Amino acid sequence: MIVTDTATNVSKVTPRKAVLDMPEYHPPLAGRTVLRLDFNENTFGPSPRVMERLQIVTAEGLTKYPEREPVERIVAEHFGLQGKQVLLTNGVDEAIHLMCCAFLDAEDQALIATPSFFMYDVSVQMMTPHLRKVQADTTLEFPFERFMAAISERTKLIIVASPNNPTGAVVSREHLLAIAAAAPQAVLMVDEAYYHFDGASVMEDLATVPNLIVARTFSKAYGLANLRIGMLAGNPELLKYVRKVSSPYNVNGVALDCLPVALADEEYVAWYSEQVRVGRKRMMDGLRELGVPFFPSHANFVLMRIGPKHKELVAAMRAHDVLLRDRSTDPGCDGFVRITIGVEEHVTRGLAALKLSLREIGWEREQVSELVSRQISDETREFE
Asked: What's the whole-model pTM score?
């Protein structure tokens, strides 16, 4: 029963303590009608086959509950897996949430490295206050040795993003397998949302690593962010628990109709991924010419260090109809700004606006620590 204070008309109902304590995620989505280089989305569009498929969505089709399992079999075959090894989700956001619901009790510990995707914090702390974070050093590379040392008997869920957001750094297969082996009592979820822009994966290790689960999204290279569809792949024994806590209708029917044709158009995905890889090199070369320190990226974005004028740069870029993402609130990222890499035309526009904006705000390289600048410059040459 809900009890209401009649004098103030304020409900006395309170949620679980974990809900009161958990962080909130508020993406700055308002006014995104210009060039979107802020959210790591596909900047061009999905496969033309997806648009054709949308044209034949019927009124009757919209009245029916979606059937996820037949599409899971198609997806599994595409990736060389069995049907029970795949669970489709409402984007990777839901995949993270379901993993936490399935494997974390209130006294369990989860482990992540930071900076990384903020939704890990949100979903873990909804279930347990025991989230252990291992902070990367100034290189923003994955802190493997310290991460391994942080694993304990209480660790039940480990989440590693590779390539990582917002850094663009990757974690080697050898390190990922070592983490899984060091924590047999825990599930290791490897978030491969940006897989297409790097190519390295542990998907083929699912058959031999029983506590490994891989997450993929169809929002990035496939351009289906608005349809909200992602996947988990792994040991059927583990996934049956995740499936148990999932709604049977978690993925909408339009997304399920479009996903098979998006997967089938491998030529489009290869084209878009190559556009990003070429554009990423152009962007990093351009930043180097401008004297802007940046972190070598394996994803569809580049993280750069602007320093105290980071907010001014984001505002100036918006005035030139280009959106960037300020990452200064991420751990260890004060003064950092991220730019999404898309198709050739959008990279050209982004670079042109960046040159103008840096000049307008009076940005100079000296405003950023010379020590950090030299360090990032050395890492960039090594990356090449």
From this structure: 0.91
